[in-house]
Amino acid sequence: MARYAHIIGWGKFVPPNILTNEDLAKTVDTTDQWIRERTGIAARHIASAKETTAIMAVHAARDAIEVADVNPAEIDLVIVATATPEYPFPATACLVQDALGAERAGAFDLEAGCSGFMYALTAATGFIRSGIYNTIVVIGSETLSRVVDWNDRATCVLFGDGAGAFVLRGSDEPGGVLASILGSDGSGGELLMVPAGGSKHPAGPETVLSKMHTIKMNGREVYRFATRVMASASRQVAESAGWSLDQIDLFIPHQANVRIIDSAARALKLPPDKVFVNLERYGNTSAASIPIAVCEAIDSGKIKAGDHLVMVGFGAGLTWASCAIQWSAPKPGVIAPPRAAVSRLRYGWSSIKSIGSRLSRRVDAAVSQLIDTLERKTPEE
Description:
5-stranded mixed sheet, 13 strands, Peroxisomal Thiolase, Chain A, domain 1, globular, alpha/beta
């Protein structure tokens, strides 16, 4: 019997600190009008020193789990799509898995630039359809402000921080993620990249001084690429799902540039009321942009059960990805206080257990070291 991957929970988190175009104009050679005309962006949220990729991912995932009314012990897998992980390793997803108390879940990160969330959603769908797993948390989380050159007006005006998450669950009921299209063109890898910090250019004084740890982008070429693939990937995924373009109820694109979004909508002949845009308030949050947009679309009443959604993204790689989704989850009501209280207790207990595990490992290591020391000091018989 066929298995379907349904989205049963969703959540988002954005840092409270807002950086407006006017704020940027005080430090770089730009204006609010210049930014709005070229990008459609008016403001972006910027993470504080205490708000990291993992912390934001945990906030978004917990909200999604609350909406889904799922016990973290039921989660089989946690996937975090990010280009700005907490560390090179361990995977950010492992830190999130621990914070959620998802004790039996596997966890891994996925990096496909701004297409990352669509790639992760496709991977999770495959796990569910195959029967390997049944309940999966997919998160897009980014602290792009950490890798932006704040003196480069061509890039610093574009990016913001945030996280969004879905909970997927398997079902025999048709619906959910019906089709996906993934693509890449590595010949354009140098068009959008952070050059240093990997094996080719390890971190060192030279890479830091030359700002090789910040985003470098050929804006003109990326724009040409994006305007081409956004429409074509959307057509392909709609066709794969068996839909005509006029059957799309809502088009939710990666929020990178309003001109790119408008170009794709025109090519698909979609009216403005079928295109969701929240770019003005958030800027480009990379892998987090689509799940954040979905959460806002639900809150504003633009998504209802039975709707046909097309989500599409593009990003570094160069990569692109699209998903066709028949929405099946009703809009949730207000989460009851008793359920919220149980969740707080559950996460508190998870934190205590995590601390206990760390202490236990340290005690075991100390005891082992003591035994080794004593054995070395004991005369041989």
